[in-house]
Amino acid sequence: MFDITTLPTNPGCYLFRDVDKKIIYVGKAKNLRKRVKSYFQKKDVDSKTRCLIDSFDSVEFFVTDTEVEALILENTLIKKHQ
Q1: pLDDT band at 63 (very low <50, low <70, confident <90, very high)
Q2: Assign residue 3 a region: left if phi > 0, alpha if psi is -120 to 50, beta otherwise?
Q3: What is the rounded CA–CA span in Å between residue 82 and residue 15?
Q4: What are the strands, taking DSSP E only, across 1-82?
Q5: How far apart are the first and last CA of the chain?
Q6: 3-state DSSP helix/strand/coil percent for the chain, to nearest 5?
Q7: Which of 32, 36, 37, 52 sits 20 to 30 Å CA-CA off 44?
Q8: Does the reported pTM lie above 0.85?
Q9: Model confidence pLDDT, tens digit, residues 8-52
């Protein structure tokens, strides 16, 4: 497991990867640390989110200057890795 406190509080995008380093989710955040942390604080999550949490092995992140840049980057990453 990784240390969530090492994630920055800046806006940006994050990639959840499985044990084979395959990207299983691309997301964006106004605050990377808070957003990623939110996945692990919820007790009642839907089945899709539970599967994501159970499948991920690592998190990669990209810091942006603004939320708008994060949105554009998310769109680009999804298209690139789809």
Answers
A1: very high
A2: beta
A3: 13
A4: 12-17, 23-29, 58-63
A5: 26
A6: 45, 25, 30
A7: 32
A8: yes
A9: 999 999 999 999 999 999 999 999 999 999 888 877 778 888 888
